[in-house]
Backbone:
């Protein structure tokens, strides 16, 4: 049976949910992609505030309970030239490390991200004879990543299988911002707090 490994870029998936206006059920995501074969492991990458608040801790605990291996990185506060403070974190290195270090343990890698920075690691996997599936939404997927993948899954097409019913996020199409709070969001303000706590 085909061995499956799942890699979820938390920031990218959250941004996709904001844009779509509906949220994902991570247990259903696990079940949906596990159906492709035998699940080797599922990795979830997310930034966390320090100190970690209760809501974020519950979210990470829930993912772990579901069976995810959760990789976290603390947020860093940066101040730009105008004096505005932003929180940033990037887990690309962690994702790529797991992707390549565990390559002998899976046949197919499923990446939930649209980030073009993963183009080269995906090429390396394919050189190793691995199959790579990229899942995201077209408007947030780089051409380079989509082009190099063996298969592309539009998350809108599997909504009925992965949606968390009754739990909505404000849609970008209705005027809300789609960015994850820890990528470019200001530290202060109600909008940043809303984005943080909805994760």
Residues:
């Amino acid at each position: 049976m085909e061995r499956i490994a799942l890699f979820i870029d938390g920031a990218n998936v959250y941004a996709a949910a904001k844009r779509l206006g509906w949220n994902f059920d991570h247990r259903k995501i696990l079940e949906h992609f596990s159906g492709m074969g035998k699940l080797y492991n599922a990795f979830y990458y997310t930034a966390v505030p320090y100190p970690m608040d209760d809501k974020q801790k519950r979210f990470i605990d829930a993912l772990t309970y579901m069976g995810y291996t959760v990789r976290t990185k603390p947020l860093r506060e940066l101040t730009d030239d105008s004096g505005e403070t932003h929180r940033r974190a990037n887990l690309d290195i962690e994702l790529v490390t797991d992707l390549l270090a565990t390559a002998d343990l899976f046949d197919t890698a499923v990446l939930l991200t649209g980030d073009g920075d993963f183009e080269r690691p995906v090429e390396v996997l394919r050189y190793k004879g691995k199959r790579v599936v990229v899942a995201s939404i077209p408007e947030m997927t780089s051409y380079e990543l989509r082009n190099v993948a063996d298969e592309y899954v539009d998350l809108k097409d599997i909504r009925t299988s992965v949606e968390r019913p009754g739990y909505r996020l404000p849609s970008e199409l209705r005027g809300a911002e789609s960015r994850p709070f820890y990528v470019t969001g200001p530290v202060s303000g109600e909008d940043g707090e809303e984005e943080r706590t909805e994760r």
